[in-house]
Specification:
Blueprint lengths: L3 E6 L2 E7 L10 E5 L5 H9 L2 E5 L3 H29 L2 H19 L2 E6 L3 E2 L8 H5 L8 E4 H16 L1 E3 L4 E3 L12 H8 L8 E5 L5 H8 L4 E6 L2 H14 L5 E5 L8 E6 L22 H13 E12 L1 H4 L5 H10 L2 E9 L14 H6 L2 E8 L2
Parallel strand pairs: 2-7, 3-4, 4-5, 10-11, 10-13, 11-12, 13-14
Antiparallel strand pairs: 1-2, 5-6, 5-7, 8-9, 14-16, 15-16
The protein binds S-adenosylmethionine.
The site of S-adenosylmethionine has 23 residues, from α7, β11 and α9.
Length: about 375
C-alpha cells in the first residue's frame, strides 16, 4: 500500500497518497509554500527535513529548483577543490555519490499535488496528463516531488521524439526509467564487430530499449531472444522492436539473465559501475558487487553453442575509479572457463569527458569502452 502524506492548509487537514519512484519516504513535516519563498529559505527548510508543498506558479517553482541547484553546485565545487587535494579517486567517487544523494534529497523536498485525471492545479501549469499516464496508475490525489515530475515530463518528450540511432537506421524511443542509449559509442562496436560463424541465434541479456537486439536483427541474425528483469524495459523493447519492423526475429522474455537453451552469440551490456544503486532508476548504471557482470560471465559457457561467442560490453571507468581492477575482470573471465578471443575498443565522446568541473573528470578522460569477444575454454 502507498504511504500517505498530510498537511494543514487554511486550517484544514489534508491527506493524499505519497509517491516516490526512488522509494524515498515522505517528509514528516509539510509546509504549504508559494512564490514568496526564496531559494535560501527553501534550502534551509529542506535541510531541516520539511517538505515544501508548492501552491504558486509552475514556472516559478521550476526557477526555485534551479536556484537551489545553483547554490548546491557552488557548495559542491568548493568541496571538490578541498577534497581533490587530499583524497584518492575512489574516495572522491564515494564522496561525489554521497553529495549527489544528499543533493537529490534536498531538491526532492519541493513537492506538488497531482489531482485525479493527472491535473496539476498550479498557475501556468502544463498539461501533464499523457506524461503521467505512462508512469502512474493512481486514480486519487497524490503528492510527488517536483523533481520527479520534471523527470517524468522529460522522459515523455524523449519517448515522443525518440533518439536517432545511426546503427539501427532509425530512432529508439526510451520509456521512463529504462536505460537510454544516448551515449551510444558502444552501439558502433556491436554494429561492426565480426559475427561468429554461424550466427543464426542470439541472446541479448538485459535488453533495455531493445537496441542491441535490433542492431543484431538488422545485421541478419534470424532468431534473437532478449531478456530483462524490468517489466518497463520489456514494454519499451516491445515498442521499439515493433517500430523497427524486426518483430519476427526477436522474442522478449521477462526474466533474469539467460533464457533456456543455447545461442551462437550472447550479448550483454551490464551497468558499468560496481556500486550500490540508491534507487530503482539507478539500477541500469550501478551493478552492486558486479552481480550482473559476474552472473553473465558465470552463465555464459553453459549457454553458448559450439563456436559461439559472448560479447561483453563494458567500459573501464570502474578501473579508473579504483572500483575494479583489470586483473579481477580477467580472473572472472577465466574462472568462468572463458577466454578472450578479441577486444574492440572505442573512446567515449559524450560531453562529460570535456567537463573539467566534474569531480570524476580525470577518470572520465581516460575511459575506454570495449566489446570483449569471449569464447569457451579458459
Ligand atoms: C546498462 S542497461 C543496458 C540496456 C541495453 N542492452 C543497451 O545496451 O542499451 C542494463 C539492463 O540490464 C537489465 N538487468 C539488470 N540486471 C539484469 C539481470 N540479472 N538479468 C536481466 N536483465 C538485467 C536492466 O534492467 C537494464 O535494462
Amino acid at each position: 500500500m502507498s504511504p500517505s502524506i498530510s498537511w494543514q492548509e487554511n486550517q484544514t487537514q489534508h491527506t493524499a497518497l505519497w509517491h516516490s519512484e526512488n522509494g524515498a519516504k515522505p517528509p514528516k513535516n509539510i509546509l504549504v509554500v508559494d512564490d514568496s519563498l526564496t531559494a535560501d529559505e527553501a534550502l534551509k527548510l529542506a535541510h531541516e527535513g520539511t517538505g515544501l508543498l508548492w501552491q504558486g506558479d509552475y514556472h516559478n517553482a521550476r526557477q526555485l529548483l534551479q536556484a537551489m541547484t545553483r547554490r548546491l553546485n557552488k557548495k559542491a565545487l568548493k568541496k571538490k577543490e578541498k577534497n581533490s587535494a587530499h583524497k584518492n579517486i575512489r574516495d572522491i567517487f564515494n564522496l561525489y555519490r554521497l553529495s549527489q544523494a544528499q543533493r537529490a534529497k534536498l531538491l526532492s523536498m519541493v513537492l506538488v499535488r497531482i489531482d485525479p485525471g493527472f491535473e496539476l492545479a498550479l498557475r501556468r501549469a502544463p498539461n501533464i496528463q499523457q506524461a503521467c499516464e505512462q508512469v502512474y496508475a493512481h486514480t486519487t490525489t497524490f503528492v510527488i516531488s517536483l523533481r520527479e515530475l520534471l523527470g517524468v515530463i522529460g522522459a515523455f518528450e524523449w519517448r515522443k521524439n525518440g533518439v536517432p540511432i545511426a546503427e539501427t537506421g532509425g530512432s529508439i524511443y526510451p520509456f521512463y526509467g529504462v536505460f537510454s542509449p544516448v551515449r551510444g559509442e558502444y552501439l558502433k562496436l556491436v554494429k561492426e564487430a565480426p559475427l561468429p560463424v554461424p550466427c543464426k541465434t542470439a541472446f541479448d541479456i538485459g535488453t533495455g530499449t531493445g537496441v542491441l537486439s535490433i542492431i543484431l536483427a538488422k545485421r541478419g541474425v534470424q532468431h534473437i531472444i532478449a531478456t530483462d528483469m524490468q517489466e518497463r524495459a520489456i514494454e519499451c523493447a516491445r515498442f521499439n522492436i515493433g517500430q523497427s519492423g524486426c518483430q519476427t526475429q526477436i522474442t522478449l522474455e521477462h526474466c533474469a539473465f539467460f533464457p533456456e537453451g543455447k545461442a551462437d552469440l550472447i550479448v550483454c551490456n551490464p551497468p558499468w559501475l560496481p556500486a550500490k544503486a540508491s534507487s530503482s532508476l539507478e539500477q541500469a548504471v550501478y551493478d552492486p558487487d558486479s552481480a550482473m557482470l559476474k552472473g553473465f560471465l558465470q552463465g555464459l559457457c553453459g549457454h553458448l553453442n559450439e563456436n559461439g561467442q559472448g560479447w561483453l560490453i563494458i567500459s573501464d571507468l570502474a578501473e579508473h575509479l579504483g572500483l575494479r581492477t583489470r586483473k579481477e575482470l580477467l580472473d572472472w573471465i577465466s574462472e568462468a572457463n572463458l577466454r578472450v578471443l578479441e577486444r574492440y575498443d572505442i573512446k567515449p565522446q559524450h560531453a562529460k569527458t570535456a567537463d573539467t568541473t566534474d569531480p570524476l573528470h580525470v577518470a572520465r578522460m581516460a575511459e575506454i569502452t570495449s566489446l570483449w569477444c569471449l569464447v569457451k575454454g579458459g
